Amino acid sequence: MKWMRWMWLAGTLALLGVAYHQAMYVAPTEATMGDIQRIFYYHFASAMLTFLFFFISFAASISFLWLRHRNPLGALSADALALAGAEVGLVFCTTVLIQGPLWARPVWGIWWTWDARLTSTLVMWLIYCSYLLVRRFAAGPQMQTLAAVVAIFGYVDVPIVYYSTTWWRTQHPSRVIGGDGSLDPSMWPPVWWNLAAWLAWGLMIMMARFVIERRRQIQEQDAALSALEASLEVMP
Amino acid sequence: MAHRHLVLAYVLTWVIQLGYAGILASKWRKIRRADTHRGAPDRIS
Hints:
The complex is a heterodimer of chains A (236) and B (45). With 236 residues, chain A is mainly alpha-helical. Helices cover 78% and strands 0% of the residues of chain A. Chain A has seven helices and no strands. In chain A, helix 3 (72-108) packs antiparallel against helix 4. Chain A starts with a helix and ends with a helix. Chain B is mostly helical. Helix content of chain B is 82%, strand content 0%. Chain B contains one helix and no strands. The longest helix of chain B is centred in the middle third of the chain and has 37 residues, at 2-38. Chain B is rod-shaped, with a radius of gyration of 18 Å.
């Protein structure tokens, strides 16, 4: 198993190297924006992966609520996956919110505007920050249930972010998949390479976070069991 | 300015991703220390 992890890491780093080369050197220079358009290749990949990891958190949260009385051990795994998906999604969302203004400043002349796409993305980021705050500060056995409900309701914002450029007039460019936005065919290979590379990276860190959370849960269960055994020993 | 922003966006992307990976590595070390202390197996089933 350990060699598989190292193979995955090596494959991911190789993919990221190819993706970087594709975005910076192979992709043609965009006619109106110039080289700054190359931010798009990892901005787009980061945005798509934000949606994917938040979806994993959403699906795992539904599984947790479904399993919590039927299969408590399975529910704990679902809860760990929900946390891992939300955290990794938030990391990608943070990079999206940093890359966007760095692209916008030379192209639009402004860092930020309160249009529907940008605002709904910021709201999504705040929702998942609050999800992590609930997990950090809510006490008691209901914390996981409360967090699952926040993740499920929070996910409502994801389609709003995705379709915001269709539903409202926005300064942000249109969707390139299923929207009015279009790409030159020569720009698609760097898009797919970057998506594949960042997906491999994201899955790797999500699995690492999942394993850490499972271990923490097992330690917590062991500590509770030890405390119970100790209390039984002192009883007459 | 455009080139500076392009490089900055790429560098900041990696700073955030590697920063998060670093946080995970430190959490992993903490968990492993606690596992070793209580004599738990190396893997979870």
